[in-house]
Amino acid sequence: xxxxxxxxxxxxxxxxxxxxxxxxxxxxxxxxxxxxxxxxxxxxxxxxxxxxxxxxxxxxxxxxxxxxxxxxxxxxxxxxxxxxxxxxxxxxxxxxxxxxxxxxxxxxxxxxxxxxxxxxxxxxxxxxxxxxxxxxxxxxxxxxxxxxxxxxxxxxxxxxxxxxxxxxxxxxxxxxxxxxxxxxxxxxxxxxxxxxxxxxxxxxxxxxxxxxxxxxxxxxxxxxxxxxxxxxxxxx
Length: 236
What we know:
The chain has about 240 residues and is mainly α. Helices cover about 65% and strands about 0% of the residues. It has helices at about 5-15, 25-40, 45-55, 70-85, 95-105, 125-155, 160-180, 190-210, 210-215. Helix 4 (about 70-85) crosses helix 5 (about 95-105) and helix 6 (about 125-155) runs parallel beside helix 8. The longest helix has about 30 residues, at about 125-155. About 20% of the residues are buried. Residues about 55-60 have low confidence and may be disordered.
C-alpha cells in the first residue's frame, strides 16, 4: 500500500517493460503481472488509490476517507518549514522527529493531524531539514552523478553486462522516486546499490582498456583427480 513502492514499481515497468512490449514473451509477462496485481492486491490498496485519484488540490483532500494524504501533506509542510528555518546545518541527523513534534505543537491550529514525533516521509525534505540545504545538495550530487555515470557507460556497454547495468540504473531511479514518499537516505541498501553500480562501471572500463588477450575469456581445464583414501581404512 506504500505510495513510494507503487511509484517505484510503476516507474520500473514504464522504463523496462513498455519499450519491450513488441516481444510476445514480455507482453505475456506484463499481462500476467497486471492480472496478478488485480487479483492479489488487498482491497485497502484500491480504496487508497481511489481516494487519491480524486485529490487535485489541498482543498479536496477531504475526499480521502483515510485522511492519510491530508496528514502526509501537513507533515511535508512542517518539514519544509523546519528546513527553511535551518538552511545551513539543519537540526542534526536523526533529530527530525523530535523537532517535528516541537513545531507541530506550536502550529497545532494550522496542522491539527500532524502532531507528535512524526517522520517527514520524504527523503529530500528530511535530508534538508536534518543536514541543511548543503547536505541535501551533497546527497543529490552523489546519486544524480551516479545515475548520469551509469547511463553514459550504458552507451558503450554490450551483452549481459549492459542489461545488468541497465537494471541497476533504473532500480536506483525507482528508489529515488520512492523517496518522495519515504525517508530512505540512511538505509544501507542505497549505498550498497551505489557501490554495485560503480563496481559494474569500473569493471567495464577496465575490460575496455585491457589488452585484447586479457579480454578473452579464460578456459579452465580441471584434470581428473583420484579420490584420496584414508590410510586407516587401507587393508594390510
